[in-house]
């Protein structure tokens, strides 16, 4: 089950839970333990608000760009450690990678990761310069 389907299932479950509480407490006058209507209304509102906030946070988390694994490496900027025509080594996010470039790249030039296949990154030359620290 994917994260999206799990989130949808949890959201629908919470919606129907709140819906059932409203039907029981307000339409059928069911009040267990003789609770007052204002207390029940406050409880339903609080549970609803918490559910909406949690649902919104899950939605935002699903929209974020991955930061780990090979998916998180795509788009990262680095530096060519060797001249690449088309193969060589690059320094990206504190690691040295075997790389394949889309064209000739000189040692020390800035690169950006386009894709990752296995333990090899595919990079392209970028004109921006960045300060890199080899001690990462």
Question: What is the succession of H and E elements?
Answer: HHHEEEEE
What gyration radius follows from the Cα positions, in whole Å?
26 Å
Class from secondary-structure proportions: alpha+beta
| Total tally of structural domains | 2
Beta-strand content bin: 15-25%
Average predicted local confidence, pLDDT? 80
Oligomer: single chain
Strand order across the largest sheet: 1-2-3-5-4
Taking the alpha carbons of the first and last residues, their distance comes to 37 Å
Name the shape in a single word.
rod-shaped
Which spans have pLDDT < 50 for at least 5 consecutive residues?
A: none
Report the count of strand segments. Answer: 5
H/I helix tally:
3
3D architecture notes:
Helices cover 42% and strands 23% of the residues. The chain has 136 residues and is α+β, with helices and mostly antiparallel strands. It folds into two domains: 3-63; 71-125, Beta Barrel (OB fold (Dihydrolipoamide Acetyltransferase, E2P)), CATH 2.40.50. It has a five-stranded mixed β-barrel with strand order 1-2-3-5-4. Helix 1 runs antiparallel to helix 2 (37-63). The longest helix has 27 residues, at 37-63.
Concise summary:
This protein is of the alpha+beta class and 136 residues long. Helices cover 42% and strands 23% of the residues.
Descriptors:
alpha+beta, 136 residues, 3 helices, OB fold (Dihydrolipoamide Acetyltransferase, E2P)
């Amino acid at each position: 089950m994917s994260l999206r389907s799990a989130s949808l299932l949890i959201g629908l479950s919470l919606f129907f839970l709140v819906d059932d509480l409203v039907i029981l407490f307000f339409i059928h006058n069911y009040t267990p333990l003789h609770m007052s209507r204002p207390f029940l209304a406050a409880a339903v509102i609080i549970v609803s608000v918490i559910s909406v906030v949690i649902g919104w946070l899950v939605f935002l988390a699903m929209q974020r760009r991955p930061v780990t694994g090979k998916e998180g490496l795509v788009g990262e900027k680095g530096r060519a450690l060797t001249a690449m025509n088309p193969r060589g080594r690059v320094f990206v996010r504190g690691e040295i990678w075997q790389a394949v470039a889309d064209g000739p790249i000189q040692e020390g030039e800035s690169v950006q990761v386009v894709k990752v296949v296995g333990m090899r990154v595919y990079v392209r030359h970028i004109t921006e310069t960045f300060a890199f620290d080899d001690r990462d």
